[in-house]
Structures are given as structure tokens and as C-alpha cells.
Amino acid sequence: MREILPALGRWYAEGSPFGLATVVAVSRSAPRDPGASMAVGPGDEVVGSVSGGCVEGAVFELAQDVVESGEARLETFGYSDEDAFAVGLTCGGEITLLVRPVTAALDPSFGAVAESVAAGRPVTVATVIDGPARRGATLAVWEDEVSGTLGTTGLDVAVTADARGELALGATGQRHYGPRGERREDSVTVFLHSFAPPPRMLVFGAIDYAAAVARIGSFLGYRVTVCDARPVFATPKRFPAGVEVVVEWPHRYLHATPTDERTVICVLTHDPKFDVPLLEEALRRPAAYIGAMGSRRTHDDRMKRLRDGGLDEAELARLRSPVGLDLGARTPEEVAVSVAAEIVALRWGGSGAPLTATGGEIHPRVR
Q1: Whether residue 89 is found in the same domain as residue 124
Q2: When you count CB atoms within 10 A of the terminal residue's CB, does the N or C end of the chain come out lower?
Q3: Residue 33: helix, strand or coil by DSSP?
Q4: How many domains, in total, are found in the chain?
Q5: 279 part of a folded domain
Q6: Residue-range definition of the domain harbouring residue 294
Q7: Which residues have a Cβ under 8 Å from the Cβ of 268 and sit 6 or more positions away?
């Protein structure tokens, strides 16, 4: 959704109705996660994807239908192989889509939501997907304000509280309520879609490998910062556009920089005077991934220094070193792919093994 919002915001500002399809539930080996979206706008322009191509033709027609009727629809697509031309997923999974019309009259908060996402202001959009409340009704919830309604004051109050909780976690998913927000009932299903600011990737060491890692980090959706104490290397012209470059001692910069459970920290300095104090700081704070470049000899020496610095085995176990998966990478770009692959595998619980050597679901649900 984040990627297609600029186009949706433009259509909305122009007063052009559009149909918006959003994945609100998945099962088994579904190709996309909840929140993935596709929209059909003026001139039948299409942006986004909900299945990687399996059902987009059917969704295109659904989006046109809801714009014409003004009524939202809930549709489920599953596996179908009896008819080669049947609409269905080929992966064996199942996705449920909410397809709704978007206009200023039906969703007066949409423009403000698009602007907030573009500005990095956290917001959660709550949408009724099933039950006695109007399907497609939306409530936009920020940290300090609310816009829209799901139909009743009680439902709005209950959903607002939950939406702010999900927003703090950057989480997206379904919640169930009674018609007036009763928490012990489940007649109304609401989809909470959180737009937290992009996670951060902190890259330390302004070397050629850092430029490649920064580039792939930006591609994966991270807000990337490169930090190095050496001003001759830490110059913006050596890095992709949009990457922040900071001249500072790495451990000092990290000490002054907030991190959370989504933050990725890549230490590429492989110099003890930089990376040991930096890792002492990194391994004692929240982060999704902490990786350090270096040979196995460098790693052994680094681990000894970190133990001597007082880090315990639980803290040291968080360190991914030598950094990356074993791909046989040589060039900076190949090493960046190796690092990115390890980050993705750690995020989703992947083994890093070739899919030809594994069995079961390709996209298992994350509990």
C-alpha cells in the first residue's frame, strides 16, 4: 500500500473515484501478506498487486464493479487446478480481499492518511470488512487525533484504542467486536492497517561494500544511514540518493540514536577501534539484526574483545558474524545480496536453504 499511495493520493485529490483491493486475510502458502493492495483508477489505470498475477484480472473487474455500485465487497480466492482457465491461486494458498470504492464522500480521511504516510507520520486505518456495520467504513487513527467513523461511538472508541496499540507495534491484522465495540463479541470484523515509519538500517563504515548494502537496504524499504568517523570517505556523493551520510565516531552516533525491534545494524568497519565499542553499544539495545563484516580470524579476535568488555553469551549470540549467508559472494554487490538475504531470512524465519532442498509451505504463516 505504501508504494501505491502517491498514485492514490493524486486520484483522490483530482476527485477521481477508484476501486481499492486490500488483502485482509491469508492462509497457507499465500503469495502476499495482509495489507498488500491493488487499485484501479481513472482510465483503467492499475497500480499495485495482491497476488503476484494470479487473480489480478478478476480483481480488476471487481474494482470496476464496486466503483459503479458504490458498495464494498469481500472476496476469497483459493487454489484451483481443475480448470486451467479458472481464477485462483496456483500456490495452494488462500487470500481474502476487501474491495471498496474510494471517494471523498465515502472516505473523507483518505487524503490526510496519504499525506501522513508520505510525511512519515504514523497512522492506522481501521476498515469494517464484515458484520452489521457498513462494510468499507473507515476510521483513521493517529497518535493524537481520529477521523471518520465505523458507525457507532462505542465501536469507534474500542477500535481507536486497539489501533493505537497496533500502531506502536507497526502491526496489521484483524480484530473482532460487537456492534457497539463490545470486546467479548465478534459480530463485527475490522481490519487494522498500520503505517508506521519505515524501519531503519544503520550502516557503519563508508566503504564500497557499504554503498552496495545501502542501495539494497533502500530497495527493501529501509531508511538508510551510513556513518563513518572519516570525512574523506563519508561523503554523500559516494552513496545512493536518499541515503543519509553522517560523519561521527560510530559508537557515539549509535549511542545518541534510538533503535527498535525493526532496526537493522550492519557493521562493515572490521577495525577493532571502531567496531568493538560500536558492537558493545549495539548488542545491548533493541534491534532486529546486528551483523559484522570480517574474516573468521577477525571474528574470533572481536569476540574475545567483546567478552573482555563484559558482554555475556546471550548478548553475543545476537551477533551475525561473519555477516551474510554463504552465497560465495565476491563483489560488493554480491556481498550486499548475501547480507540482505540473511536479514530477510532472520525476519521471516527462513532457513536460508535452497527451496529445492526443502518441503512444505514456501510462505509459512508467522506466528
Answers
A1: no
A2: C
A3: coil
A4: 3
A5: yes
A6: 200-348
A7: 203, 204, 205, 207, 209, 210, 213, 292, 293, 323
**CA–CA separation, 76 vs 119, rounded Å?**
33
Q: Which of 80, 104, 128 is the last residue of a domain?
A: 104
Angle subtended at Cα 197 by Cα 93 and Cα 347, rounded to the nearest 5 degrees: 45
| pTM for this predicted structure | 0.68
Of 53, 71, 104, which one is at a domain's C-terminal end? Answer: 104
pLDDT digits (tens, 9 = 90+) for 278-296: 999 999 999 999 999 999 9
Query: Residue 257 belongs to a domain with what CATH number?
Result: 3.40.50.720
Grid coordinates given for 240 = 545512493
Give the DSSP per-residue string, 91-157.
SS-EEEEEEEEE-TTT-TTHHHHHHHHHHT--EEEEEEEESSSPTT-EEEE-SS-EEE-SSSHHHHH
Q: State whether 17 and 134 are in the same domain.
A: no
Question: CA-CA distance, 269 to 293, in Å (whole number)?
Answer: 7
Residues 73 and 125 in one domain: no
| One-letter identity of residue 29 | S
- Across 114-267, the runs of DSSP E, i.e. the strands, are 123-130, 138-141, 146-148, 173-177, 188-195, 200-204, 223-228, 244-247, 264-267
